[in-house]
Every structure is written in structure tokens, then in C-alpha cells.
Write a structure and sequence with these properties.
Strand content of chain B: under 5%
Oligomer: heterodimer
Radius of gyration of chain B: 22 Å
Helix content of chain A: 55-70%
Number of strands of chain B: 0
Number of helices of chain B: 20
Structural class of chain B: mainly alpha
Distance between the termini of chain A: 38 Å
Number of domains of chain A: 2
Shape of chain A: globular
Keywords (chain A): Endoplasmic reticulum, Glycosyltransferase, Membrane, Transferase, Transmembrane, Transmembrane helix
Number of domains of chain B: 1
Structural class of chain A: mainly alpha
Largest interface: A-B, 42 and 52 residues
Distance between the termini of chain B: 32 Å
Subcellular location (chain A): Endoplasmic reticulum membrane
Organism (chain A): Rhodosorus marinus
Strand content of chain A: under 5%
Order of helices and strands of chain A: HHHHHHHHHHHHHHHHHHHH
Shape of chain B: globular
Number of strands of chain A: 0
Number of helices of chain A: 20
GO molecular function, one term (chain A): dolichyl pyrophosphate Glc1Man9GlcNAc2 alpha-1,3-glucosyltransferase activity
Largest sheet of chain A: none
EC number (chain A): 2.4.1.-
Helix content of chain B: 55-70%
Chain lengths: 505, 459
């Protein structure tokens, strides 16, 4: 049957015309933004972790106590342990929260989650996160495709919009800074935003080496430094007498190497080897199987790193990114994004007491790169897939099973249909292997081994993801090293070498 | 085929997202709602012999859908039992709403959509020779219409199965396999009798076709329909089932529904003037008058494109004028108008919006206001991006009409939020929604009629 056949051709021409118009691109970005906001609204009633109450408590602290007590109050166990800029952010939200439901600002309401509170807090995550990322995309002159990768990333959705955190907001601020820093004219503004971003989330500190380097190379150093330190000091000034209190809150030393749920990094792999090895020898079981956080030395057989050793390894692992940024000529903005992503990835793979959510920091900057530089596709893909799988244990209630699987599959299909390049057999096998791993951990394990092995499902997922993430780290390092050597030979033989960044398009 | 993986998964993401919201009667002890009804039917069909399905304790959510629904509940109960046996234990499970069984029930709706509605929609699309972007639009209207998602995956029902069977019926009719189509349509009617709204148009189409194809064709169809019906009904006492599924005693309308009878109720209290049997005759006569011209046209010109138009007119007229209409039955005209989304993009877009607003009081009561809002934004975004760029060079009427509709809806929401509560008129805003939606539906019906008479002589 053919209801309409007439103006089919004319319409196709229309579509092609439309793609060239820049205003259409902006419209498309608005479409992605609106879709993202409304999709995330669907997840309002989903499971919320204790982080929801943590942030509610911070709202109460900042709106009901004087500034001096923000970092000393211990009414609730969920004390304020984010940097001052985030505290100001909560303070600002308090003014709107008052109109929504003033009960949520009462310090002694532990826990409190009225319908209004849920809608309000969820909505602030969506609006501030999505708008910050949208602004960053505009500043990078990036495409609607990049925006979709960022806003609809299932890992971000799971952590921010279901589990509940404000990562999108903090990372959006960082990405905004990264867009302006390499630009000679806008560098001071970028430096100011970098100071703000650092004060939203202290884990962004790992970007400091790369950012310092790019300022040294390309920006007007004095202006950038003045702007950065001005904003930084301005943020810290009200707390100047309590610096030691704040530092203690922000960097709680004395935690163990592994988080209760192993983040999928090198230590997770070593921990599982350690368990096998100690089981073979018949020695004491490793304490890391009991899900305890406070162990500085979790390994029985394998060598235990010290916090300083772990930090040294992180910095060593970062070095290729710094050399790449320093040596290679080319689009400095893209290179900065790559270097920052690699820095976060190094910190994730070798860091001390890493949270699984920290992988977002490595994934999101790459969203600007992966769509345009084929060599980074496989790194990006592996990070996305294993990163998202590793977030699955965060949502353990039955109601969220289907949404999280669908988000994962949807993103996988999106990547497969739009980024269909250098997809190797090993990669496909690895992704397919995720299915039995997840099925076993979620549905089968409790029926097969009921007691005494509760750590197995999470450890299994963690180790499986760790394989992919460590692979992504190695691949990223090798790409960086090959770029460095290429640029060296290029400068040696007077520009005869091959240009390395092959742009798509 | 790869191109369809992403839209398919997107439709599943939306479904699973809507499913996070409360279902009808969640934790509403002891009355509950449709979720408990569906769960209870699984419990009854699982625990009782087939002869007692329609007679066992009918006062507590007894089955009031045709037998295929009962079989469907029986099949689904195995899935629920696999997840949580306590959820379908006879009698013990009344009001059972645990996390695991809730997730399994939600998943079962999605699973049935995957098995019936979505394959049927893909079949329908394969029968139409239009570009992929147009197919995407039709796919959206048939498989992801906001009202459908809100009712099936939010409120909790299995309309997707009956609508899917109808789409399958129409796909076969379009490809000329009327006998196969009549089997699917019979199944659809025997799943949910609300698809009866389509029957007059389809019957006239077949009568029209029989003018050229002869009595043999008609006999084949009749035998198939009777045979299928007999197979389904053979296990049951027809009288008992009929009295369960056609509750004439329940009156002209019950809850607030966006049809003509409910909308004129504030002005003319028909229910106080006439008795129930008079009202039954009155609504029957009015419906007949409203659908007759479309039936005549499809009898006169028995072609697929006329059939689809007649089906949308016929079902919409039935929704507006028939006896004992429920608000959720708006899904019936919606699927027919969804099939017209290429010929009437504006009508389809606007109709989908009003289909949601007509149920808004119900959705709000059930705690689905936010998912309603989210789906409407997605709907607007989808229509603006996929339809409006295609209208370039033509009159801007489409964008104006759609924006006007959205602004109108937004204003109504503002009125409801900011307006005063009148103690003497507790249903004031409910009536506002149903009346506004009813007015929109009447206009759409008139336009559909107009376009039918315009379109037929041309083709």
C-alpha cells in the first residue's frame, strides 16, 4: 500500500540542505538537551542512595548554620566533605529550597525525603548538570553528537540521576575551563573556571598537572595565574582560619587501598590474584573479601603498596599524557582533553581508595574526542562499556534492573551504529562476555552459593571491568607514545613525518 | 535492520522509565487498582480450573475481559511465579506488592509488547513503501505514543497486546490477506472487547469487497471469525462471560471521561432525565448516526487508505458517543490515527497530546504527573524535529497549530495550579480537562470527516 509517495524526493533534499545550516545544529543541540532533561525526569521515582540524604543534609547545614560551623557540624553522620564552592552551591540552592519545602532545611530531620524534596533535588541535578555540560559543548564548538554522548551517557545517568550525585555539574565546569584554557584570549577566564571546578569536587585535582602544563605553554601565564589564585583565594577566604579542618575533611587519609566495592582497577586484579594465591597456599583468607574499608595492607601474598607508592605510580602513569601535551603540535584543545582524560584514567587505575564513580572523569572529556578521532574510538568504547557495567552494582533493587539494562543497551546500540570503526574481534568477545558475567552476578549467584561468598558477584564484575579498563589505559598510553615519537621524528626530519590526528569528516 | 535497533531500544527505555512511577492503586489498601486486578487474574487462572475463571469470587476484581485476556493472564502467571511464587498464590496473594513481583509484572508488560505489538508494528511498516524517516514516525506513533506508555506501563494494563493484534490484522488486510486479518481481528476483540469500535468500519470494508469478490469470500470470512470465536469461547459459559464483560447496569459513563455525554453533563443532566435503557438507545442511535457516513464511504470505496480513515473516524466517534466508555479507551482511536500519521501529521501530533490530557486527572491522581510531563516534552521534541523541517516551503500552519496546542495545554495547567479550589465543585478541574479534550476530539473528528470526503474522490 502506498498512502504517500509524491514528495519523498523533495523532502530528502530538504534534509540535506538543513544539515549545512549552523542554526540547525544549534536547534539539534536544543533537541538533545530537551530530550535528555525529559528522559532524566522519568527517573525521579527510581532508587536513591544515601547520597541523596547526604546532599539534603548539606542543604540543611549550609542554610541553617553560620559559615564557621559548616565544616564542623556533626549532627548527621553525613558531614560536609566537598570543597567550599560546592558548599556555596548548596547554600544558594537553599534559597529556592525554602520555597519548595522548608522542612528539608531542618538539620534534625534525618533522613527526610518528601515528594517535593525529591523533585527539587533531582531537578537541580538535571538542570545544573545538563546546563553546565551544554555550556561546555557550546564553548568547545562541539557537535550535537558530542552533546548526546555526554548528556545521555548511561554511566552519568546511573550515577547522577538515579544513584544521586552532582558529577555532571562539576565535570561540566571542568570541561568549560578546558575549552577556554588553551585559548590565549580566554585563558584567564578558563583559569577562573578551573579554580571553581576544583572547588566543586576535589577529585578533579588530578587534572592539575596537565592544566598547569597547557598554561605554561600557551597562555599568558601571569594573567592566568592571577585569575586562578584570585578566584581560589576568594573561595577559601571565608574559611581561612579553618584551613586545617577543611583539609582534614576533604582528604580523609587513613582509608584503605580498596573501597568496599572494589573499583575496577589494577588493585582489583591484584586483589583477586591474591585471594586465589592465598587459597592455593591454604593461608589465611584475605581481609579484602570481607568488604572492609580500613585496610591499608589488604594483600596477604602480593606486595602491598603504600599511599605514597600508589601516588608515585599514578604520576608515572600520567607522564605520557604530559609529554604528549608538551611536545606534539596540533589542536591544543583536543590534546588537553585527551591529556586530562588520560590523567584521570591513570589516577583511576593506580590510585589509592578509588571509587568506581571516578571513571566518569576519564570518560566524559573523551566524548569530545571519540566522535572525530578514530584512534580514540576503541579506548572510549571500552571505557564506556566497562565503566557502565561497573556501575551496575550501585543499583541493586529489582525495579531499576530493566532501566539500567535498557540504558546500557541503548548506548551500546548508539555507539555501534554511529561509531562503527576498528571494531576488533577481541573487543566483541569482551562485550559479549559482559552478558554472562552480569547474569551470573545478578540472578544466578544467590541461588548457587548462598552464604559466605557474598563478595563474589561484585568482585567478578569489578575484575572483568578492570581487564577492560586496564586495557584501555594501555591502549591510551600506546597511542600517546606513538604520537610523541611521531612528532619527534617529524621535528627531526623537518616535517616529513605523517600527520597523526586523522580527522574524520 | 540495524537502523531499527536504536529506535526499538529507545522505546524500551521509555517503557522501563515510565514503569518506575506508581501504578494504579499502588499501596492503596484495600481497594487497589488495575495492577491488583491483573495480578489477581493471574492468581485466579493459575489456581482455579477453567470453569471457575469467570465465577470465582467476582466481587473481588473478577475477570471482566473476554476469554483471551484470561488465557493471557494464565500464561503470564508462569513468569510471575518463576520470580516470586507468593505473588500468584491463590487467595493468599491478595494485595501482594513486593519489589521483585512488581518488577516482574512491569517486565511482563514490556515482554508482551515485544512479542505482539512491536512485531506487528514492524510488519505494518514493511507493508508501507515509504522512506525510513517516515517509517520512524509511524513507528513512534504506533509503538511509543505517550498515552499508550502511560496507560500500559504507568497505570498498568496490557492494551499493547490487543492493539498489536489489531495492527497485525490491518497489516494482513493491507496485503490483501483478509482471512488472516479476520483471525487477528477476532483475537484482538477477544482480548479486549473495546476493539469492537473498529468492527463497523471493518465489516463495511469486507461487505464492500464482497461486491467484487463474491459471496464465497464473505462466507470464508464469516466461517473464520465464527470458528476462531468458537475455539476461544468453547471452554466457557457464554452467558456468564457476556454479563461480566458488558456491564450495562453500570450506566452511561462512570468516571470522568472526555466524551460528549460527560462533557454536556454539567449543563444537561441526562442521567437524571432518562432511565438507563433509554440512554443506552440514545447513545446507540447517536453513535450510529456519527459512524454511518464513514461506513458508507468505506463500503463504497473499499480500499486500504479509505479503510484506515474510516477506522479512525469510527473508533473516535464510538469513544465520543458510545455507552459506558472508559478514559483509557482513547487508545483505540489513537492507534488508528497513528496509522494515518503520514497523511495527517498535524492531526496525529495533536491527537496524541489530547489523548494524554484527557487522562490527566487520572494520571495525576495516580502520581504520574511527572512522567506525563516528560513524555509530552519528548513528544513535542520528536514532532518538531521529525515533522516540521519537512514542512519547509509550505505554510507555517503546522508549527503554529502545534505550538498553539502546547501553549493552550500549558495555560490549562497553569489555571489548575494557580486557580482557586471551589469546595462546591470538587471536580472542577477534572471537568476542565475532559471538556477541553472532548472539544479537541470533536474538532479532530470533523476534520477527519472533511478529509475523508476530500481524499476519496481524488484517489
Amino acid at each position: 500500500m502506498q498512502f504517500v509517495a509524491a514528495d519523498d524526493m523533495a523532502e530528502r533534499e530538504d534534509e540535506q540542505d538543513g544539515e549545512k545550516e549552523p542554526s540547525n545544529m544549534f536547534n539539534l543541540k536544543i533537541v538533545v538537551l530537551l530530550f535528555s532533561v525529559s528522559l532524566k525526569m522519568l527517573f525521579f521515582p527510581a532508587y536513591r542512595s544515601t547520597d541523596f540524604e547526604v546532599h539534603r543534609n548539606w542543604l540543611a547545614i549550609t542554610s541553617s548554620l553560620p559559615l564557621e560551623q559548616w565544616y564542623t557540624d556533626e549532627t548527621s553522620v553525613w558531614t560536609l566533605d566537598y570543597p567550599p564552592m560546592f558548599a556555596y552551591f548548596e547554600f544558594g540552592l537553599g534559597f529556592i529550597a525554602k520555597w519548595v519545602d522548608d522542612e528539608m532545611l531542618i538539620l534534625d530531620n534525618i533522613p527526610y525525603a518528601s515528594l517535593e524534596t525529591i523533585v527539587f533535588q533531582r531537578l537541580t541535578v538535571i538542570l545544573f548538570g545538563d546546563l553546565a555540560i551544554f555550556a561546555a559543548v557550546q564553548a568547545h564548538h562541539a557537535s550535537a553528537y558530542d552533546l548526546a554522548l555526554l548528556l545521555l551517557h548511561p554511566a552519568l545517568l546511573i550515577v547522577d540521576n538515579i544513584h544521586f550525585q552532582y558529577n555532571g555539574f562539576a565535570i561540566g565546569a571542568l570541561l568549560l575551563a578546558l575549552a577556554w584554557l588553551p585559548d590565549r584570549r580566554l585563558a584567564p577566564l578558563g583559569a577562573a573556571f578551573f579554580a571553581i571546578a576544583l572547588n566543586l569536587k576535589q577529585t578533579l585535582l588530578f587534572a592539575v598537572p596537565a592544566v598547569t602544563l597547557v598554561v605554561l605553554i600557551s597562555a599568558p601565564i601571569l594573567q592566568a595565574v592571577v585569575s586562578f589564585s584570585g578566584v581560589f583565594l576568594g573561595i577559601w577566604l571565608p574559611f581561612i582560619k579553618q584551613t586545617d579542618v577543611l583539609i582534614k575533611r576533604l582528604f580523609p587519609f587513613g582509608r584503605g587501598l580498596l573501597h568496599s566495592y572494589w573499583a575496577p582497577n589494577v588493585w582489583a586484579l591484584i586483589a583477586s590474584l591474591d585471594i586465589f594465591a592465598s587459597a592455593l597456599i591454604g593461608g589465611e583468607p584475605s581481609p579484602s573479601t570481607r568488604g572492609l574499608i580500613g585496610f591499608a595492607e589488604p594483600f596477604v601474598i602480593m606486595p602491598n603498596p603504600s599511599p605514597l607508592g600508589s601516588l608515585c605510580m599514578t604520576i608515572l602513569a600520567m607522564l605520557p599524557a604530559l609529554f604528549y601535551l608538551a611536545l606534539n603540535k596540533g589542536d591544543r584543545r583536543t590534546k588537553l582533553l585527551i591529556a586530562v582524560s588520560h590523567s584521570f584514567l591513570s589516577a583511576f587505575v593506580f590510585g589509592w581508595h578509588v571509587h568506581e564513580k571516578a571513571l566518569l572523569l576519564a570518560i566524559l572529556p573523551l566524548c569530545f574526542v571519540a566522535g572525530h578521532h578514530d584512534r580514540w574510538c576503541s579506548v572510549f568504547r571500552v571505557l564506556c562499556m566497562s565503566g557502565t557495567l561497573s556501575m551496575f552494582p550501585l543499583l541493586y533493587e529489582p525495579a531499576e534492573l530493566l532501566p539500567k539494562y535498557m540504558l546500557f543497551l541503548g548506548f551500546a546500540a548508539f555507539l555501534a551504529t554511529t561509531m562503527n570503526r576498528n571494531w576488533t574481534l577481541i573487543e566483541s568477545v569482551y562485550y559479549t562476555g559482559m552478558i554472562p558475567i552480569e547474569i551470573y552476578s545478578t540472578f544466578v549467584h544467590t541461588k548457587v552459593l548462598p552464604v559466605g561468598y557474598e563478595f563474589v558477584p561484585q568482585a567478578l564484575i569489578s575484575c572483568y571491568c578492570a581487564v577492560g579498563i586496564v586495557f584501555a589505559y594501555c591502549r591510551s598510553t600506546s597511542i600517546l607514545l606513538s604520537s610523541i615519537s611521531a612528532s619527534k621524528s617529524q621535528s627531526d626530519d623537518g616535517g616529513q613525518g605523517q600527520p597523526k590526528e586523522l580527522k574524520r569528516d | 535492520m540495524m537502523d531499527w535497533v536504536l529506535p526499538l531500544i529507545c522505546s524500551l527505555i521509555l517503557r522501563s522509565g515510565v514503569g518506575l512511577y506508581p501504578y494504579s492503586g499502588e499501596r492503596d489498601v484495600p481497594t487497589y487498582g488495575d495492577f491488583e486486578a491483573q495480578r489477581h487474574w493471574m492468581e485466579v487462572t493459575r489456581g482455579k480450573p477453567i470453569s471457575e475463571w469467570y465465577t470465582y469470587d467476582v466481587d473481588y476484581w473478577g475477570i471482566d475481559y473476554p476469554p483471551l485476556s484470561a488465557f493471557h493472564a494464565f500464561v503470564t502467571s508462569f513468569l510471575i511465579e518463576a520470580v516470586d511464587p507468593a505473588a500468584v498464590a491463590l487467595f493468599e496473594s491478595r494485595g501482594y506488592e513486593e519489589e521483585g513481583s512488581r518488577a516482574a509484572m512491569r517486565a511482563s508488560v514490556i515482554l508482551w509488547d515485544m512479542m505482539v505489538l512491536i512485531p506487528a508494528v514492524f510488519w505494518f511498516l514493511s507493508k508501507r513503501s515509504i522512506s525510513d524517516s517516515k517509517k520512524l514516525r509511524t513507528f513512534y506513533y504506533l509503538a511509543c505514543a505517550p498515552a499508550l506508555l502511560l496507560v500500559d506501563h504507568g497505570h498498568f494494563q496490557y492494551n499493547g497486546v490487543s492493539l498489536g493484534l489489531f495492527v497485525a490484522a490491518l497489516s494482513s488486510v493491507i496485503s490483501g490477506r483478509d482471512v488472516l486479518g479476520s483471525i487477528f481481528f477476532t483475537l484482538s476483540m477477544n482480548f479486549k472487547h473495546m476493539t469492537l469500535y473498529f468492527l463497523p468500519a471493518l465489516a463495511c470494508y469486507c461487505l464492500g469487497r464482497s461486491r467484487t469478490r463474491g459471496l464465497r469470500y464473505l462466507a470464508h470470512l464469516t466461517l473464520t471469525i465464527l470458528g476462531t470465536t468458537f475455539l476461544i469461547w468453547a471452554f466457557f459459559d457464554v452467558k456468564v462471560v457476556l454479563s461480566r464483560i458488558f456491564p450495562v447496569n453500570r450506566g452511561l459513563f462512570e468516571d470522568k471521561v472526555a466524551n460528549v455525554w460527560c462533557s454536556i453533563n454539567p449543563a444537561i443532566k441526562l442521567r437524571n432525565i432518562f432511565g438507563k435503557s433509554t440512554l443506552l438507545k440514545l447513545s446507540g442511535a447517536c453513535t450510529l448516526v456519527a459512524i454511518l457516513p464513514s461506513c458508507f464511504m468505506v463500503w463504497k470505496y473499499p480500499r486500504p487508505e479509505v479503510l484506515v480513515r474510516a477506522l479512525s473516524i469510527c473508533s473516535l466517534a464510538c469513544y465520543l458517543l458510545a455507552y459506558q466508555v472508559h478514559e483509557k479507551q482513547i487508545l483505540i482511536p489513537q492507534v488508528a490515527i497513528g496509522m494515518l500519521s503520514e497523511e495527517e501529521p498535524l492531526l496525529a501530533a495533536i491527537f496524541s497530546i489530547f489523548a494524554c490530557t484527557s487522562m490527566f486527572p487520572l494520571l495525576k491522581r495516580e502520581g504520574q504527573a511527572i512522567s506525563y510531563l516528560a513524555l509530552l516534552i519528548i513528544h513535542a521534541v520528536f514532532v518538531y524535529t521529525t515533522t516540521i523541517p519537512k514542512q519547509k516551503g509550505r505554510s507555517p500552519g503546522f508549527a503554529i497549530a502545534l505550538s498553539g496546542t502546547l501553549i493552550f495545554i500549558a495555560l490549562l495547567h497553569l489555571v489548575e495550579v494557580l486557580g482557586p479550589t471551589v469546595p462546591t465543585l470538587p471536580d472542577l478541574y477534572t471537568v476542565m480537562w475532559t471538556t477541553a479534550s472532548c472539544a479537541a476530539f470533536c474538532t479532530i473528528l470533523l476534520v477527519l470527516y472533511l478529509r475523508l470526503f476530500q481524499a476519496v474522490p481524488r484517489s
